[in-house]
Design goal:
Radius of gyration: 23 Å
Strand content: under 5%
Number of strands: 3
Strand order of the largest sheet: 2-1-3
Shape: elongated
Structural class: mainly alpha
Helix content: 55-70%
Distance between the termini: 51 Å
């Protein structure tokens, strides 16, 4: 605990700001641990508590605003990239989008407590054209709730943290071995996940001319065209291909139930 508090005393505000900004923009950094350490440092009078909180709030808001505007203009291309950084890239977008679709604005209040969704909430809000003012209010409330929870957890449990960290220092070599094994297991898991779901990256495509030719020869009796856009669909003046149906990508579980099983379905997106 002494070493941790020494590091927090020297670089505490900058460390808190950097870690929380990194997590906000999608990097897998331990923001909650940084806040707990900051709370413990404040309890020991090593750092000024309001300074830690201010650094954390500014970092999260800067990162989330950047993600919001990137989501507004980059759409799901950005979301796909962020999901590649998560532990479960194969379900990241759908899980996050489904949560945002079902809970709407409430998602921004609780998103930072949920791994995966914490990084996706801000760009999803931008992609779905939530007004910036509404986003900023909800995001600020969610950031304050997140920071207060972990900061006060560290502040109130300082003595317990001292006991735990001192015990860990005594068993340092054992912990090093555990960390190394955990890293190896995680690497194996990630490789296995990529191999298992690599077929998802091979999406069959059809040229517009080929689809038009088939429509001309077979008609629309055996063909269904579906619009699954998220980014772009909500823009003013956006139109669908004539004869296509709308499938809300954030509610696929329910939308799939209504699709015809007697037609070949062609999806288009942006």
């Amino acid at each position: 605990m002494h070493d941790l508090l020494t590091m927090m005393a020297r670089h505490g505000y900058a460390l808190t700001f950097g870690v929380l900004l990194g997590e906000a923009i999608g990097l897998p950094l331990p923001a909650a641990i940084a806040l707990v350490a900051g709370g413990a440092a404040a309890a020991s009078h090593t750092l000024w508590g309001p300074g830690i909180v201010a650094a954390a709030v500014v970092a999260l808001i800067i990162g989330d605003i950047a993600q919001y505007w990137l989501g507004r203009y980059a759409g799901w291309a950005l979301l796909a990239f962020l999901c590649r950084l998560s532990m479960n890239p194969e379900t990241c977008i759908l899980r996050s989008a489904e949560s945002f679709y079902k809970r709407g604005r409430v998602t921004l209040l609780i998103a930072k407590f949920i791994p995966g969704i914490n990084t996706m909430a801000a760009p999803l809000a931008g992609s779905m054209n939530m007004s910036f003012g509404q986003f900023l209010q909800l995001d600020l409330a969610g950031a304050l709730l997140y920071i207060a929870t972990y900061f006060f957890a560290g502040f109130l449990s300082r003595d317990f943290l001292v006991l735990v960290l001192n015990s860990l220092q005594t068993a340092g070599r054992v912990m090093e071995s555990v960390v190394i094994v955990a890293i190896i297991v995680f690497a194996i898991y990630r490789i296995a996940t990529v191999l298992k779901y690599r077929k998802m990256y091979l999406v069959p495509r059809v040229q517009v001319a080929d689809l038009l030719a088939r429509l001309a020869t077979e008609g629309a009796d055996h063909i269904q065209i579906a619009d699954v856009r998220s980014h772009g669909y909500y823009d003013k003046g956006a139109e669908r291909i004539f004869g296509s149906i709308r499938i809300e990508p954030n509610n696929l579980e329910e939308e799939i139930k209504n699709l015809s099983k007697d037609k070949d379905i062609y999806l288009y997106c942006t």
